[in-house]
Design brief:
Helix content is 62%, strand content 0%. The two termini are 25 Å apart.
Length: 151
């Protein structure tokens, strides 16, 4: 009986650890596609950074667009593809290009097809919100880890 009472009073941590972190793939894809289709789009989401995106390929693509934009170069599909193909992904053992690591030119083309550049700034704020939630969850996990270590 005592074991049942103790178990009822314990928080159920397993239910929070098996969920996906907050993210909006649709918003991320719309922003990336919009940037490659609309020359003015990158200027509307300068408040974003690559780490705000939840997927590594999306981070890489956004970083490419940001670097091109900072050099006053177009962020269209061809320029982004060339930029990515000219750089090596040193995080992999095979030393493949960044273009190969994100899924190739087909991935870029697919992003350009599923875009809505009209609300790109609003999508950017949605991505920031999801990023802030992921950061909060990360801090919570760290607190739990430290509490378990302290025990």
């Amino acid at each position: 009986m005592v074991a049942q009472i103790v178990n009822k009073n314990q928080p159920n941590f397993t239910s929070i650890f098996d969920k996906f972190p907050p993210q909006s793939m649709a918003a991320e894809e719309a922003i990336l596609g919009g940037i490659m289709l609309d020359p003015e789009a990158m200027g509307r989401v300068t408040f974003l950074s690559p780490e705000h995106f939840s997927l590594k390929p999306h981070q890489i693509i956004f970083d490419a667009c940001k670097q091109l934009h900072e050099k006053n170069l177009p962020t269209d599909l061809m320029h982004v593809a060339v930029w990515l193909s000219d750089r090596i992904d040193y995080t992999t053992q095979n030393k493949i290009t960044l273009l190969e690591s994100i899924g190739g030119q087909l991935m870029l083309a697919q992003l350009a097809e599923v875009t809505d550049a009209i609300n790109i700034d609003q999508y950017g704020y949605l991505i920031l919100k999801k990023y802030a939630l992921r950061c909060g969850i990360s801090v919570g996990y760290e607190i739990i880890r430290l509490a378990q270590e302290f025990n």
